[in-house]
Specification:
Elements lengths: L5 E4 L14 H12 L14 E6 L3 E5 L9 E5 L5 E7 L1 E4 L2 E3 L12 E4 L11 E5 L3 E6 L11 E7 L11 E3 L10
Antiparallel strand pairs: 1-9, 2-3, 3-4, 4-5, 5-8, 6-7, 9-10, 10-11, 11-12
Length: 182
């Protein structure tokens, strides 16, 4: 594995489509983080995260590298159209429970909303991602206005800490929205 970033795009050969349907973001993150996509010369290797838990096509728990990162967990609930909810954990014991949750349930009971599309349809939305086994950014053109104007910019993973004693250098982006319409 490498800390060298890899760039992914919805325009890549064999890239998964992202839409406003349940399970679309989970499938995209499976491809980017764990499985890779494409074939032959155009194949894209995954970022090197692991899929620790999976339930059906909509619930996933991903973990970044415990060797180069903190090994924290990102739980995605992609059971809704339009947006998925995201919660981070320091440790997890199954798909629904763990310790060191962030944000706290008292801050966001349902988690952070990551928008997929402004319409609950199968219409594809452009996306672009960059990352490594440490962290990733995911840009999504939720309103189909052009990827350069993507209103959804999501981040999950480690960031460089200024104090090496700080064990809290893992974050999940939060726009403050509770849904794509907010």
């Amino acid at each position: 594995m490498s800390l060298t970033p890899t760039i992914y795009s919805s325009s890549d050969a064999g890239a998964p489509a992202l839409s406003g349907q349940a399970g679309a973001l989970a499938a995209l993150l499976d491809a980017i983080l764990v499985d890779g996509y494409g074939a032959g010369q155009s194949a894209k290797a995954p970022l090197g995260w692991t899929r620790e838990y999976q339930q059906g096509g909509t619930l996933r728990v991903y973990r970044n590298s415990p060797d180069t990162g903190t090994g924290h967990y990102v739980r995605i609930d992609d059971s809704r159209p339009i947006y998925a909810t995201v919660i981070g954990y320091e440790l997890m014991t199954n798909i629904g429970s763990g310790s060191g949750q962030f944000p706290l349930a008292s801050q966001r009971a349902d988690g952070i909303a990551w928008g997929k599309s402004n319409a609950a349809s199968g219409d594809s939305r452009a996306w672009w991602a960059i990352g490594n086994e440490f962290c990733f950014y995911l840009f999504i053109d939720t309103h189909n206005a052009g990827i350069e104007q993507a209103p959804a910019v999501n981040f999950a993973g480690n960031f460089v800490r200024s104090n090496v004693a700080d064990g809290w250098n893992f974050a999940i982006s939060d726009s403050g929205a509770t849904s794509i319409a907010a």
